[in-house]
Fold:
Amino acid sequence: MTSTPKDQAASNGTKLNPGDEAEPGTPGTGENLCPECKGSGRIGVTSCPNCGGTGKIIEGVGGA
Structure:
């Protein structure tokens, strides 16, 4: 799996959040709840920095 530096935009123009392991739609990846905010998109009164306030991250699924 190729990786994109976290501070760069994905090839489709969306900005990756720190918790994302790959661009959306990358084979072998899927959406999951953010482990930092538990899917709420917020930590206290601020947006979660890990998922950018979406409550979701993109991560690898399965093995190999």
Summary: The two ends are 10 Å apart (CA to CA). Residues 6 and 18 are 6 Å apart (CA to CA). The chain has a mean pLDDT of 85.
